[in-house]
Amino acid sequence: MIPINYYIILSAILFTIGVTGVLIRRNALIIFMSIELMLNASNLAIVAFSSAIKSFSGQIFVFFVIAVAAAEVAVGLALIVEIFKSKRSIDVDQISSLKG
Amino acid sequence: MTLDLALFLLLSLVAIATALGMLMSRNAVYSALFLVLNFTTVAVFYLLLGAPFIAMAQITVYAGAIMVLFLFVIMLLGAEALPQTNVLPWQRPLAIFLAIILAAEATFLLVTKARPTGDVLQPEAAVNTMDNLRQMGMALFNQYLLPFEVTSVLLLVAMVGAITLTKKEKGERKS
């Protein structure tokens, strides 16, 4: 038997790696992948809690999160392609047109 | 140490290593491939937790569809490696320091305040796939029918949004 705390700690570590990725990387695609990693970490925590209380509601919720993540990726990647078309780069430091 | 625990520790090692590999690698294609392995590992965790349907959805949607989309866009843009530009030299150490604080705090609060009770489901119960699928289906189409339908509308909106974003305007010049 695996104590649920282990799953929670693993989920927190994965989430933190995702946050670090958003903070230190400059490539918009890598930042987007880090966001996916964070979504995944939170899904893992939800499923762990749902197993611990022996309920299916958590799994249904994770199913919806996965569907929303798929929609988010489709729109987000379309936005990145659009940014690349106008700026010729997906470095987030280059996207500074509104800077004073 | 039981077999489950050994499996868990080994898999969590793989999960953390692949996540770090995604973070560190210079080439975006390698990052995407590391992330595929990470998603697959998380799918195995779902199996361990007694959620076979979620595990399969994770593999088909995340490791399959989403990462293929990522790889497709990386290759379409030819943006594997960006030139190294370090605008703020103190940003990276500060970010790592703050991230470690976040990890410690989140772990502490989740473990102490959320009060998760005991152990997770027996893997023997987890392997009983048909039961899980039946219960998921019953819950999804009875209790959660409205959210399910709203999700389909959301997917439709995302599809239309992606098409309109990438479509060329009528008067736009070819670039």
Describe the structure.
The complex is a heterodimer of chains A (100) and B (175). Chain A has one domain: Helix Hairpins (Orthogonal Bundle), CATH 1.10.287.3510. Chain A is 77% helix and 0% strand. Chain A is built from three helices and no strands. Chain A has helices at 4-24, 28-52, 57-87. In chain A, helix 1 (4-24) packs antiparallel against helix 2 (28-52) and helix 2 runs antiparallel to helix 3 (57-87). The radius of gyration of chain A is 17 Å and the shape is elongated. Chain B has helices spanning 3-24, 28-48, 52-77, 91-113, 123-127, 129-143, 145-166. Chain B is extended. The mean pLDDT of chain B is 84. At the A-B interface, helix 1, helix 2 and helix 3 of A face helix 1, helix 2, helix 3, helix 4 and helix 6 of B.
Write the layout of secondary structure elements.
The complex is a heterodimer of chains A (100) and B (175).
Chain A: H1 4-24, H2 28-52, H3 57-87
Chain B: H1 3-24, H2 28-48, H3 52-77, H4 91-113, H5 123-127, H6 129-143, H7 145-166
How many separate helices of chain B?
7
How large is the share of residues in beta strands of chain A? under 5%
> CATH class of the largest domain in chain B, please?
Mainly Alpha
What is the mean predicted local confidence, pLDDT of chain B?
Answer: 84
- How many domains of chain B? The number is 2
- Molecular shape of chain B: extended
Low-confidence spans of chain B: none
| Second rung of CATH, namely the architecture of the largest domain in chain B | Up-down Bundle
Number of strands of chain A: 0
**Rg of chain B, alpha carbons:** 21 Å
